[in-house]
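Study the following:
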Amino acid sequence: MTVKTTAALIAVGLLGVTAPSLAWAGDLTVTLTGAHAGGGQVHAALYTRETFFRPGGLQQTVDPASGAVTIVFRDVPPGDYAFTAYHDEDGDGQMDRSPMGMPSEGWGMSNADQLMGPPTFDVLRFTVPASGVAISVPLHYSTGR
């Protein structure tokens, strides 16, 4: 059997091997640090360049815990992504903002320490290899809460 034939049989599942996407996609584990305990939920999103801040990104919602929140995106294809999260402390389903437009609830983004203005995909971008990756993202809270 040739390599090409074996690959084709695996792709259609005839050799009893799991789907090839699992072999070519890894998990992304995001640890959000500094989470406040209490009400609300943490909303997280993983975007490609094409889905950046648009419908279509991978999304998860988790209950916060004091200190760290772990979110796992399973079988993420290798490539460049941007991650965002916010802690909807009051449970109204949206990020609250101050009169100046600054977030008044906890928020975090991949590479947020590089921000010098509104977030862009290029600033927030990080790479997920085929083997998967783990990243840590701090949640930032305004001093008013």
Confidence is low (pLDDT under 50) at residues 1-22. The CA atoms of residues 117 and 126 lie 18 Å apart. The beta strands are 26-35, 41-47, 58-62, 67-76, 79-88, 107-109, 126-128, 133-138. Residues 25-138 form a domain with the Immunoglobulin-like fold (CATH 2.60.40).
